[in-house]
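Homework help board

Subject: predicted structure for assignment chain

Our instructor gave us this sequence and asked us to write out the predicted structure in token form, then describe one feature. I got the tokens but I'm not sure how to describe them. Can anyone check?
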Amino acid sequence: MPVIESEEHRALRAAVAALGHKYGREYLTRTVEEGRPATELWAEAAALGYLGVNLPEEHGGGGGGIFELSIVLEELGAAGCPLLLMVVSPAICGTVIARFGTEEQKRDWLPALADGTRVMAFGITEPDAGSNSHRITTTARRDPATGDWLLTGRKVFVSGVDIADATLIVGRTEDARTGRLKPCLFIVPRDTPGFERRKIDMELSAAEKQFELTLDDVRLPAGALVGDEDAGLLQLFAGLNPERIMTAAFAIGMGRFALSRAVEYARDRTVWKAPIGSHQAIAHPLAQAHIDLELARLMMQKAAHLYDAGDDIGAGEAANMAKYAAAEACVKAVDQAVHTLGGNGLTREFGLASLITAARVSRIAPVSREMILNYVSHQTLGLPKSY
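My token output:
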């Protein structure tokens, strides 16, 4: 481990784990039942500097990177109380603004994202585009009279819009040279006229709600555009790679939580003469789940290291692999944990049943495992595309 994680990283991991266990699964379950966000945990994590650990020091952050932020989310997840909006607000939005935002955008947003007083959501998915980001139809056009942007389109499955101060929207503008649409990123404040939201009725138990957004000629000042209009694709993937890495951290943490509950149960539960954990039919699948989670973490750490080192191409490959491996390991760990507890695995007391649905999300979002396999097939192995 010293080769992979420094003494400071291990200290961060231990400190965040202590915070996570202070709140735990029961706290997160209670917030879901009350229909509210995990405000207390978010505020304390921010006060301790964990939310902004990846953001620049000159803008109120910790001066670290996605490597450090992934440690925070993984350990909160392992304690049973992961914060989904960490994937979005500091990881995607904070990173994009830190790398490409104007000085005014950095001053306005980064200190507040770091100290948790402001939250930003991220909108990319559209009803008719799915995993094909090239089919995004949300478009932005200039008002020649004022220089403002007019943004029109729809987004779905946007997390936390109700508590976010603004949403970073992925739109498209027309390239004057080619006439083709190119991606651009816009900061849309929550109360902007024409920016409407509708909560999606989900069967997923989570503190963060999902929304469909409608943008009807939303008027934005020129300063709402993040970065360079002609570098949209580069800026977009600067946010998507951290998203995949943090999703991996979320999944690994969830898998570790489920596995720890199963191991604790298997050590003590006695049906015949010995604890059930002494039987290889119980022990071996749990050991395999642990191995899979550890392997996924190694790939996640590789991806985070490459990203923080500025290797966007290498990070793209590793981040996709990490997300794939972590999702598969998480689903298997949760399934085996529930199976180990039998009927108890479906009770509220042990807090595992709700993870069955949540674990599946890591396979689907923010990109499906099939699209990751496509990416590896084309980009890594050089195989031809079928689409």
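Reply (TA_rk): Your tokens look well-formed. For the description, you could write something like this. The chain is about 50% helix and 15% strand. That's the kind of observation they're looking for.
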